[in-house]
Amino acid sequence: MADLGCSSGPNIFLIISQVIDSIHGICQQAQFKVPEIRVFLNDFNAIFQSVPGFFERLNKAKGKMVEPCSIVGVPGSFYGRLFPTRSLHFIHSFNCLHWLSKVPPGLKDTNKGNICITKSSPGSVIKAYAKQFETGFSAFLSSRFQEAGTNAWRPNAAPVPGMEISEVDWVPRDKDDAEFQSGHYLSNIVPAASEQMISRRFGDAVTDSLFIKYATNVEEHLRHQNNGKLLNFLVSLTRK
Ligand SMILES: C[S@@+](CC[C@H](N)C(=O)[O-])C[C@H]1O[C@@H](n2cnc3c(N)ncnc32)[C@H](O)[C@@H]1O
C-alpha cells in the first residue's frame, strides 16, 4: 500500500493499523495466511523518526501475529509517477490534494502582488487556480490509475467507490470555552503540516513571526465568523 502526503503523522499510523486489522480479520475468517505488508511513503522527511515507536506499539498489540510490515520511502511528488505499473493494492492520501503542484501561471500581473486568492482578486485569478487544480488532480489520478493493480485486494474497511462531502469545524466544538483561544489552537496545528515547507523556502527566521501573525488573523476572523468551516471531500475509487 502507499500513503501519499503523510507529513509527520500520526494519521498515517492510524490508517496502517486499520488496514492491518482488516487484513487480519479477513485472513482469520477465511483461514488465509496473513500476507506481508509493505507501506510506501513519498513525503517522509518528518515521519521516519516516529516509525520505530509505531513498530513497537504494533508488536505489543499484535504480538506474533504480525507478518513483516516494512515502511519504505519513495521520493517524489504525487503529481507524477512514483511506483511501477500495477504494483499497488491500496493507495491512500488524506488532506493533501488541495496543495497545488505550482502557483498558476500568469498571476503576476493580475493578482496585485498576492500569492493566493484574496477579496480583491479578479475572476480570472479564481479560474486560474481552478484550472491548476484540475491539471494537478488529473495528473494525480492518471498516475495512480497506472500504479494500481486490477486484482487489488480491497480491505473490507475501505469505503465503497463514491464520494462523500462533510463539513468540519475549524476548531473542535468541545474546545469552545472562554479560556480557549482558537487562533492559538490553529496556529499550533497548522505549522505541524506546513512549517517545514515554509522554512525550507523562506528560512527558519520567518516561521515563528509568521505563525504568530497567522494566529492573530485567525482569532480576528473567528471573532466575526464565530467558527470557520472546512469542506472535506472523501473520494474512493477502484480500478476496473
Ligand atoms: C496537511 S498535510 C497532510 C498530512 C497527513 N496526510 C495527515 O492527514 O495528517 C499535507 C502534506 O502533503 C504534502 N504534499 C503537498 N504536495 C505534495 C506533493 N506534490 N507530493 C507529495 N507530498 C505533497 C506536504 O508535504 C504535507 O506534508
TrEMBL record:
Against Gene3D superfamilies, the record matches this protein to: Vaccinia Virus protein VP39
Pfam families named among the record's database cross-references: Methyltransf_7 (PF03492)
| Protein origin, superkingdom | Eukaryota
Check the record and name the InterPro entries matching this protein.
Answer: MeTrfase_7, SAM-dependent_MTases_sf
Q: What is this protein called?
A: Jasmonate O-methyltransferase
Which organism's genome codes for this protein?
Answer: Hibiscus sabdariffa (roselle)
